[in-house]
Request: fold
Amino acid sequence: MEMDKEKIKAMFSNSEWNHETIEVANEIIEKIATEWLGLSIYPNQFEITTSEQMLDAYSLIGLPISYNHWKFGKDFVMNQNNYKKGRMGLAYELVINSNPCISYNMEDNTTCLMTLVLAHAAMGHNHFFKNNYLFKQWTQADAIVDYMVFARDFIHKCEEKYGFEEVEQVLDACHALMNYGVDKYKKPRRISASEENERLKKRLEDDRILLNDLWRTVPKDLKEEMKVKRFPESPEENILYFIEKNSPTLRGWQREIVRIVRKTAQYFYPQGQTKVINEGCATHTHYEIMNKMYEEGYLAEDFMLEFYHHHSNVVFQPSFDSQFYSGLNPYTLGFNIFQDLKRMSLNPTKEDLEWFPKIAGKGDWIEQFRYIVENFKDETFVLQYLSPKVIRDMKLFSIDDKSENSYYEVSAIHNENGYKKVRKALSEHYNRSRYVPDIQVYSVDVFGDRTITLEYTPEKGKGLDYNELKKVVPYVEFLWGFPVKMTENGKELHTTKKAI
Amino acid sequence: MKGIGEPQFTYDKDTGDKEMVHPGNKEYSEGDLIKKPKGGGGGGSGQGKGSNDPSVTEDEFTVSISREEFLDYFFADLELPDLVKKHLNSLVDFKQKRAGYSNYGNPSRLNVTRSYKNSMARRMAVGLFFDKKIKEIEEKLKTETDSVVIDTLQKELDKLKKMKLSVSFMEEVDLQYNNFEKVSVPVTSAVMFCIMDVSGSMGEQEKDISKRFFMLLYMFLTKQYEKIEMVFVRHHTSAKEVSEDEFFNSKESGGTVVVTALELMAKIIRERYSDGWNIYAAQASDGDVWDYSDASDCYKILDSDILSKVQYMIYIEICRSREGDLWEKYSILKNKHKNFEIGRINGVGDIWKVFQDFFKKKTA
Reply:
């Protein structure tokens, strides 16, 4: 480092920052992050924003640009109202999974906050985006900005060509099905035409070789003959995909819009499942980096006091009976788990050796941290790494809420008996099916009136909200172009009117 | 109309088994039972901003719109029935409109930024010219040996440097003024007559309905015309032009002679609005007339005089169950004149319906 540490200290202790401050901070932080923690990050792009711009960014939920739709305006107004009334504070930063990794930082952040945000978003989240398996598999950080530019222009052109209302209708319909626009497993590659020909040729050849006239004399099962092959052959969970590929009525541009919404949904798919581990990763990273900077003499005590103040705000977890309680804070949970893994890696107790023999006392917490970040999502992260100590520290307890009972039952608390149960219950909490009901394209009446059947498979006796269902089904009908039938375990829930 | 809801497939909150994990346990042990709060759901299911429950919560949603926007939506499907406005261009007003910049003008309209830009450009250009000359001479001075030439060159150089310094900061040519032009704008002027029966038979409720109707009409007209004059005429046995306040609030009352109001209106039109005015009129009454001849007089004056002068006239009858003489006569008028409409209002709820009927967009 060219500058001497006293000078840097003084610079950081001045709450007014300028570009030089940010540059120096970035240099030091990136050095620690990459050399000490071994993080691997995309190049960073910082944007300094006003509160207005931040609200704007909020409504695009983590995309630098998006296509036009009233929903974003609605979100903007809602956030703005909440913000103006003081009901909601704005985040210090907002970071986007793109390459380069774009982060928005509020212009009125102090030097300390800016430094914290650099370590948190530009290192922590950035590393997570680049290395987590879900993000690697489902998002293309290099392409997303370009793709959204394409999407915005395409939809803009459609609006000019086909009219605002036409486009809005398609978008509204797609948004209603956005949760059903994601692939959870990679689809097998389509075989090419020549491969298909090869396959057919081979089959004909087989038939010729195996031809035996004797078989023709066997009486045929007429019923079997009448049975029509179902379509789709197996149920399809990506409803938007199915519609895009198979809707009999959609026009080309409408199909493209379905595809755009589907692609956007897929881009956000990993984010919904990695809140705890992603925030935990970022919070753990900023905490470690800040302390390292202090150890190495870049930061003064007053800076650290302010830092601890902000940090404790971030990981504030009110108890369930507090008026401020609004669920588990993912920052706190993730941070606590990572910190505890570090503790047991360096100073294991007997319990740790028993629960986490591969980590306790091994001293390789940095490598372990990177391994976890790369290979887990919330559900598996909690199931694998929520330690008894964290359960005790946070005094976690699980509650059983059966709809037929007039009471809740405390099913497990933070004791020897309950650790595994709490861990299991909390892990379930982050399962996507907890908030997205399992609804799949079950069949299409190919030879009849082309009715599409969507089958709901209930989970733990939960029914569907019928009022919402009634509002969504017309959107499906609009996209499909023919009647829609909803079933639950084969039993009919709702059918749109048959076309006459 | 389309709402702003964003429906999704969701679970019915009152069904199924749920297991939740919460922090901060103080007194519970495994197996404890906690009574559910009454009224079904909720029960600390942890929703809201920043919660880890990803299901969508409904937020309060308000948008502020301006008065104009509100009126636009409010009257979206309505229009004035007779859009051929009288004397559209007969009155002409002048408006000052910006029209670029000019080199001449009044000091108060000096455009400082532009003038300064010009001055800067001029100073730079002239400065460059001198700089070039000065450089040339300085080059020459470096190689020159003849002292006489050096002397002249030196003098020349000093002169140029002085001249360069004397380039003035502002010159007449730099000055730029905001330029305005007079643009003629056609003025459409409108006047609205509000005629209300305040005879003893009109109760508070009837007056309230009339007032609301007049308000609605006034708002609608202000959307069409920038400025609109109001004339309030109230009548019992005699008619009187009154102020707005008096019109709506005065307690004076008596019998009913309707034609007096129409006569007064005709007189006011003759005196004040005979030329170039778009005249609208609305008459509210409970339908009572003095006698049959009163109704006939009303018919005559409307038919022969008033209706040929006004753009549009509306008659509303309030809380009248049977058809009276006035209604009968006005029905004939309605069929005869395109710019006359009548309607009946039985309660506050009817006002908007009747109003819409009057101004519904007629599709050709």
About this structure: The beta strands of chain A are 44-49, 93-96, 101-106, 397-402, 407-412, 438-444, 452-457, 484-488, 491-495. Chain A touches chain B through 76 residues (CB under 8 Å). Residues 111-131 of chain A form the longest helix (21 residues).
